[in-house]
């Protein structure tokens, strides 16, 4: 019987090394003769540069170079616009070092390369910049008013993009609806805060004539291709490696100034150059996300069925749009969630401000979408005096309605088309887990009777995952019996080495530890984009599966030929291919790999050498000398994961603190490759979602100064703030890919703001408040619950 | 019109770098923290090791390690037998460091690794070995006599292999022949003497977890696979690079002790370790070739037509047979040359001796074969008073007789089957070049009348080239427009970067300098064997052609799809694919490479971005995101190059010196990729052949001491000794491969001993001598021409 490996909760192959301190992050790598870079960053949100005097810095002992825009050769080009969009009519990208203007606090202005980081940092202080201050644009609502100062004078507007999406006939639907409710809903600015900040180490290797770059990037191939094009090198002369990376969360996918400047410095100076972002730099030098202001309306019939939704929102783009308008596009497309919205008008403006640029952060526009949708449904329930679960039941897309078209074009350019799911089943599973009826009818009244402010919330969501364009993988059985797997994906903790190995081990029926997964290194695989959009398992995993299946076929065909039997008479079991019922007639995979190659391997122990009758080429035309396949998988459109969460929270109205008494999760990512890894992703996402719901807010003042750019001031949940959660799984396999999988990387982060809003609002019913803004800090709650004292 | 690039005498792409001193050979590479290795080598030809005391050496300042057999872990395994053969009934390979016995002067006994080579060499002298001398076996004729001491006691014989090949019925043919002539013919021991000796540099790269080895090898993939198997590493954890290599000539294809010990030391010691062979080490530590003693008989009819040949020869194997019996097999199969030999008996014994092991050296058994065959034909001509050219004419295989089977199994295990040729035409072309009739009838008598000892010789030969099993290549058009070509071949001067680029440039109609050829680096290509047997252009060139044609097809198909025209309406010219007659409707190759990939390239200048209507996967199933192909070519059997050479020599009987007055060459290697490179190969081969004919002889004394192990004592021709030669080409395309090419790497070296013997014999007709031994040194000639003084 074949051994089941796919779907088993095997332990992460990554952990023994990482947990015993043997991880190797970029900053752990030191190369002989290495120099260190530091960046002078703008202290002003908006200013013109009149002059920069670097002479004093240059003369400091240990300083090797001090560069401004004038000095950076090919890096003088504007940074690339990675994802254009027709509605992004006014894009803007920065210069690697500011040319004549800065547009946010933290923008790189000069670069010092020195013998040590200490010297480099000291030298930064010796650089004198003559500034001409310009009026900062911070408030995005004011930014679109006539007469507002402009972030980019030359664009003539602060509106980078204006998008309108229409499904059905929203105008008519609103006109005839039984009820219309309107909300103004805000999600504040936040950002990914990986424990490992960004880092780049680069060296020009004269032995291999190779620019070698270690980078914390989520997309080494993108960086490799960019560097090759920028420096006019052959792509094979650039190797980008993302080694162990300590968290990414989206903010590490970009082409950042440091990612071109550090390699350039290594090439020009002929010595390795390293730069590791410090935490302050991360707050002001790495992209943010989240701030959107929605004006949303929902129209329902008398029974609470959605007739139409209209949403107009402002999206804070920050100072530049290097990643296009992916985030608000996702918000727009995913806002309807698991519900039927027959008429839908969505419209946004992406607005420039003199703040850090915005690009996706785990969730990537989806927390906003779920927050808006779920808040609207809660409002409907409350207004029509319906149970909140019941309102959802009445609006779900039904299991027989897949594939289901939302009617808009998704972030990947393909239709927003849900592939499969069972939303009613998912909710019922959640309610059952929660013992919802008893909870709401008995537990809540009992606790409230004790004077406690407790509340129950539920929230449902969908997540477009596994988008294209494609990923690829090479699978090869080595003559040693080891199986080599290479992909273009890096990881920042997602356990690719485990789950991709499971896919291969299942196909070849070999032990997991026979599979070696190489990832995040352009020397191993060089086509693909990277890890983002909850796509690795779906797109890369599928490519791995296709390649492994092809290798399996190659092995079966070769064994059949050697054994002179039909492929149908063979089985693959116990790491071998053999004749059904005659296990002694067969080969190990190592033996098959050796047989595939007419060349003997010196020293190969269990060598199978069969002198072939050479009546023709030893390698017949079309045959390769290896069991090896490179396959690509390109999805027709996204796969749609979904989930439902429930919580019982308690609010301490004296302090404004929110405590989870219970947290339930139902998640559906199709077939699970490894339930342990899926749960880890869900746990992590939920934790991050709790951060977004209760803690994480980047606070800019009106001058564009980030007031809480440290972990003393910017709060994130610790393990203490994360409750134990009960996770249940539903599996609705995706019909789109060979594994039936959907993505799970961002899942948990999406519904938590909506959930916390619902539960806290429920807890605070005595105060009659509506929660319309995230995160929900104690101060806000205190004000809500003490209106008389804050009036 | 397509531009012709294939077949053009373009200049070598390699030369600007090499000629301006920018070559990078292994010894040019120094790595931080590098250690240096030196080897203690046996001073005795045959001895048992009683004890080795390394204590004094270990205690020397700067010495890091002193290893003997006991210390070398996995390297304790016997060195591999690379090419087994059924008739090699008594194989023997060495230990990387002698275990308990040494079998030739120069065999590695201990290894010192130290901070510098100076320290390491000094430490060698402090190692004390207690030897028990054993009787050395040097004379291979005595070695097969009963009671001879044995090289390998445990084998019970000095005969490693006994081979008998029979075609037709030689016994009967000899019995009925009109004439039978017999010769004893000897070719002395010699060896390849590349200007760059062998060298190995190895490092364990902890950043990439990679064993990286730079090695002067002709077969980096073989070394890579051997090291991976020996050390239990995944093959991808070992990278072997043959950078610039200064000559190979066959002796650099092997797995030598230093090639496993230096990498092992780098892994164990955690520091880079380098070893560069000195010249003395090269003489006694790198394999030799050539010594064979033939007892040959030819049977002819009354008109000088060959009826049968019988040849029994002894082949000196040296102390071990790591490369099997390839050399004498080649001699046996190629002896009939371009002539019809209907009945043929060939038999050899490969005999062990306490000398350096024998493996192929440019020519690889063929100079011996041509020497025997041509000497026999000259004898026939002289005995039957026929012109030497006329005897050959009467015996040639005719152009209509291809494919022609010799009747024996060749070195590659396939039939010795000549694919194509025109031997009569080749000889007539040579004679025409020489103005043979005038030369022989007028010039010679005139010169001789002046009292000068002048003679004319001709010699013809065939060369089995381009053997399997296979080679492969990857060709990829980069989005930058550069074309990447990777193969498993290294080079030692054969201009692969030029000729492989020509093949690709021709197919894609792009400038030569747009093609970048990566070779000799397992990081770029990892299946294949290496450069030997005049096979690179044939086997690797064909793989490159197949891959380039596939890429061309991919480009045409993509352009046809984009332009909505049929492939047949497109042309490939000027680096573009466009509609015939409408050059503006088309794409550069760079544009096509970008179109092939649904992913945009940041910074790519001439980016073609076409928003595709995404109605399905952006990368359709079966489509890859690149114009890229990896193809393998596996020949059914060898291709057969051929040649004819002629010379007018003059002998100074007072000094025994031989001078070329004229040297003519006709060579046929099928289609020429680059006539300039072909001529370079022919010139080099001829020079080496002149060395073999007049200078190169390794002289062992009866104790197994090599008496002339330096360039003071071992003579090689310099530019002064090489005459101007007239080279003409004949092209009989090979029907076996897509390019119609045959190999040319060893060509010139093959016929020269036969040619010189013929011409000198002709010059010395007044003395009635027969030349039966090569090389022909002045001393020998002096003795021949002064019989009275040497009697």
Short description:
Chains A, B: One of its GO terms (molecular function) is oxidoreductase activity. The structure is a homodimer of 791-residue chains. Chain A is 27% helix and 25% strand.
> What is the CATH architecture assignment of the largest domain in chain A?
2-Layer Sandwich
Structural class of chain A: alpha+beta
Query: Measured on Cα atoms, how large is the radius of gyration of chain A?
Result: 28 Å
Q: Roughly how many Å apart are the termini of chain A?
A: 72 Å
Indicate the CATH class of the largest domain in chain A: Alpha Beta
Number of helices of chain A: 20
Largest sheet features of chain A? 7 strands, mixed
Report the average pLDDT across residues of chain A. Answer: 95
Share in β-strands of chain A:
15-25%
User: What's the number of domains of chain A?
Assistant: 3
Detail the poorly predicted runs of chain A.
605-611
**CATH domain topology of the largest domain in chain A:** Aldehyde Oxidoreductase, domain 4
- Binned, the helix content of chain A reads 25-40%
Strands of the biggest beta sheet of chain A: in what spatial order? Answer: 3-5-1-12-9-10-11
Largest interface: A-B, 76 and 76 residues
How would you describe the oligomerization state of the chains in this entry?
homodimer
Query: At the fourth CATH level, what is the homologous superfamily of the largest domain in chain A?
Result: Aldehyde oxidase/xanthine dehydrogenase, molybdopterin binding domain
Total count of strands of chain A = 29
Q: What would the principal axes of the Cα set say about the shape of chain A?
A: globular
Keywords (chains A, B): Molybdenum, Oxidoreductase
GO molecular function, one term (chains A, B): oxidoreductase activity
Pfam families (chains A, B): Ald_Xan_dh_C, MoCoBD_1, MoCoBD_2
Protein name (chains A, B): Oxidoreductase, large chain
């Amino acid at each position: 019987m074949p051994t089941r490996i796919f779907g088993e909760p095997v332990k992460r192959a990554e952990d023994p090394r990482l947990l015993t301190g043997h991880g190797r992050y970029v900053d752990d790598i030191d190369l002989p003769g290495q120099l260190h870079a530091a960046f002078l960053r703008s202290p002003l949100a908006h200013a013109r540069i009149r002059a920069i005097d670097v002479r004093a810095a240059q003369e400091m002992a240990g300083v090797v170079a001090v560069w401004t825009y004038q000095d950076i050769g090919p890096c003088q080009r504007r940074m690339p616009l990675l994802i254009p969009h027709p509605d992004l009519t006014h894009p803007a990208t920065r210069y690697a070092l500011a040319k004549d203007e800065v547009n946010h606090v933290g923008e790189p202005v000069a670069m010092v390369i020195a013998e040590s980081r200490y010297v480099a940092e000291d030298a930064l202080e010796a650089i004198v910049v003559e500034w001409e201050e310009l009026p900062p644009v911070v408030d995005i609502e004011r930014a679109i008013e006539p007469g507002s100062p402009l972030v980019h004078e030359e664009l003539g507007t602060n509106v980078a993009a204006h998008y309108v999406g229409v499904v059905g006939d929203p105008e008519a639907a609103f006109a005839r609806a039984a009820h219309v409710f309107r909300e103004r809903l805000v999600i504040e600015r936040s950002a990914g805060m990986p424990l490992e900040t960004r880092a780049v180490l680069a060296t020009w290797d004269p032995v291999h004539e190779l620019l070698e770059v270690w980078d914390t990037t989520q997309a080494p191939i993108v960086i490799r291709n960019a560097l090759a094009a920028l420096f006019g090198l052959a792509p094979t002369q650039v190797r980008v490696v993302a080694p162990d990376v300590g968290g990414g969360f989206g903010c590490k996918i970009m082409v950042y100034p440091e990612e071109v400047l550090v390699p350039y410095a290594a090439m020009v100076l002929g010595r390795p150059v390293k730069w590791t972002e410090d935490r302050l730099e991360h707050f002001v030098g790495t992209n943010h996300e989240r701030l959107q202001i929605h004006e949303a309306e929902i129209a329902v019939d008398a029974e609470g069925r959605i007739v139409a939704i209209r949403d107009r929102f402002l999206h804070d783009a920050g100072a530049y749009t290097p990643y296009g308008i992916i985030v608000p596009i996702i918000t727009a497309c995913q806002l309807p969630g698991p519900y039927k919205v027959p008429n839908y008008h969505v419209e946004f403006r992406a607005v420039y401000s003199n703040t850090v640029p915005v690009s996706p952060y785990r969730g990537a526009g989806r927390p906003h979408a779920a927050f808006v949708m779920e808040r609207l449904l809660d409002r409907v329930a409350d207004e029509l005096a319906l149970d909140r679960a019941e309102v959802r039941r009445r609006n779900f897309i039904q299991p027989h309605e897949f594939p289901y078209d939302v009617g808009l074009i998704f972030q990947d350019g393909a239709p927003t088309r849900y592939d499969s799911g069972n939303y009613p089943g998912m909710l019922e599973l959640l309610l059952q887990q929660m013992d919802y009826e008893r909870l709401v009818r008995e537990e809540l009244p009992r606790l409230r009777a004790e004077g406690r402010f407790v509340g129950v919330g539920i929230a449902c969501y969908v997540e477009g995952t596994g988008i294209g364009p494609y990923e690829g993988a090479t699978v090869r059985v080595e003559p040693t019996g080891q199986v080599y797997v290479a992909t273009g994906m890096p990881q920042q903790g997602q356990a690719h080495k485990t789950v991709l190995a499971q896919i291969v081990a299942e196909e070849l029926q070999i032990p997991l530890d026979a599979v070696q997964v190489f990832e995040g290194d352009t020397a191993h695989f060089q086509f693909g984009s990277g890890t983002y959009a909850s796509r690795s398992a779906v797109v890369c995993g599928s490519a791995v599966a296709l390649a492994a299946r092809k290798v399996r076929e190659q092995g079966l065909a070769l064994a059949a030929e050697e054994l002179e039997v039909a492929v149908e008479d063979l089985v693959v079991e116990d790491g071998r291919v053999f004749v059904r019922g005659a296990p002694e007639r067969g080969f190990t995979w190592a033996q098959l790999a050796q047989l595939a190659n007419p060349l003997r391997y010196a020293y190969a122990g269990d060598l199978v050498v069969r002198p072939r009758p050479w009546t023709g080429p030893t390698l017949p035309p079309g045959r390769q000398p290896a069991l090896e396949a490179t396959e690509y998988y390109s999805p027709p459109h996204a796969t749609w994961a979904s989930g439902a969460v429930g919580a019982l929270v308690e609010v301490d109205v004296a302090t404004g603190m929110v405590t989870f008494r219970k947290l339930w999760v139902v998640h559906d990512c199709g077939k699970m490759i490894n339930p342990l890894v899926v749960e880890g992703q869900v746990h992590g996402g939920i934790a991050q979602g709790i951060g977004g719901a209760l803690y994480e807010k980047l606070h800019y003042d009106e001058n564009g100064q980030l007031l809480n750019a440290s972990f003393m001031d910017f709060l994130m949940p610790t393990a203490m703030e994360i409750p134990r959660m009960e996770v249940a799984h539903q599996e609705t396999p995706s019909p789109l890919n060979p594994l039936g999988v959907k993505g799970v990387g961002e899942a948990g982060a999406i519904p938590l703001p909506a959930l916390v809003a619902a539960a806290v609002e429920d807890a605070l019913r005595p105060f009659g408040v509506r929660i319309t803004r995230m995160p929900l800090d104690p101060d806000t709650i205190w004000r809500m619950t003490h209106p008389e004292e804050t009036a």
